[in-house]
Design brief:
CATH architecture of the largest domain: Irregular
Number of helices: 3
Shape: elongated
Order of helices and strands: HHEEEEEH
Largest sheet: 3 strands, antiparallel
Radius of gyration: 20 Å
Helix content: 25-40%
Number of domains: 2
Strand order of the largest sheet: 1-2-5
CATH class of the largest domain: Few Secondary Structures
Distance between the termini: 25 Å
């Protein structure tokens, strides 16, 4: 599902919400989530999951082509952990269509 699919689904589900307003709502929510993660905050949506920022320490890697040592700097990476409700919903086997 893309951002525009999400906007379309929101506008369709709430008929009183104009498409432009649904687009603004989705953009505002995603921007707020992104800003919170940039600041290092944890985002938790009950039943869906949580977004956190993980720290990866600096390490030494190898260039697979030449075998040369490469210094890999430390970095912060986003991480998503699904909630129990989402894990259970995804695990339900899909019904085979005839």
């Amino acid at each position: 599902m893309t951002r525009s699919d999400l906007v379309d689904a929101l506008a369709e589900r709430f008929s009183q919400l104009a498409h432009r307003d649904a687009e603004q709502a989705v953009r505002t929510m995603l921007d707020a989530m992104g800003e919170a993660m940039v600041k290092g905050h944890r985002i938790e949506i009950r039943g869906f999951g949580s977004f956190t920022v993980n720290h990866r320490p600096a390490r030494i890697g190898r260039n697979p082509r030449s075998g040369e040592r490469v210094d890999i700097p430390e970095k912060r990476v986003p991480h998503f952990k699904p909630g129990k409700g989402l894990r259970v919903a995804v695990d339900i086997p899909a019904q085979d269509s005839p």
